[in-house]
Design a protein that fits this description.
The chain has four helices and twelve strands. By secondary structure, the protein is α+β, with helices and mostly antiparallel strands. Belongs to the peptidase S26 family.
């Protein structure tokens, strides 16, 4: 084998190894996700691109206020915020979130949104008001809401989200580049 053909073969092997690593990482650990729609505005805008951590929830459980991507239908994935964990009762009264009868502050919502939209940002509800199979979040399920509460198809309409349907947690916003950020 000549020196040139050996060098070409080394490059081919390197390229194959890199491709294999990329396929494994994208398949099992991380995924690209492009946001469609306005249900997470102003936190996440339509057209932004995110990196989704697919392995994290195999190691740990989702936490309240995580941004998750899940399979909503066979054709569509949604991104929403975890509000209720298994065993929680959820209520919204006068734009205040109550989890297990305790008010919780939602720092991620801009305080001026309700003031500028004319009226309540989140319509009052309790789990008893919604057409759900249980008045508390069942085991293996989550209650999720979009940050744009007036324009979001979420657990109020689609019901609880099963753990098995979760794709992963949104970790990084990378597009547009000017908005690059780690998502908490």
């Amino acid at each position: 084998m000549t020196s040139l053909s050996k060098e070409i073969w080394d490059w081919v092997k390197t390229f194959i190894i890199v491709i294999c690593i990329v396929v494994i990482v994208r398949t099992f650990f991380f995924a690209n996700y492009m946001v469609h729609g306005e249900s997470m505005m102003p936190t996440i805008e339509s057209g932004e691109r995110l990196i989704i951590n697919k392995i994290g929830y195999h190691i740990s459980e989702p936490e309240r206020f995580d941004l998750i991507v899940f399979h909503a239908t066979d054709e569509s994935d949604y991104i929403k915020r975890v509000i209720g964990l298994p065993g929680d009762s959820i209520a919204y009264i006068d734009d205040v979130l109550y989890v297990n009868d305790e008010p919780l502050l939602e720092d991620y919502l801009q305080p001026s949104i309700a003031e500028t939209t004319g009226g309540p940002f989140t319509r009052n509800f309790t789990l008893e008001d919604l057409d759900l199979e249980s008045q508390i979040v069942p085991d293996g399920h989550l209650f999720v809401l979009g940050d744009n509460r007036r324009n979001s198809l979420d657990s109020r309409q689609i019901g609880y989200v099963e753990y098995d349907s979760i794709v992963g947690k949104a970790n990084i916003r990378y597009w547009p580049v000017s908005d690059f950020s780690i998502i908490n």
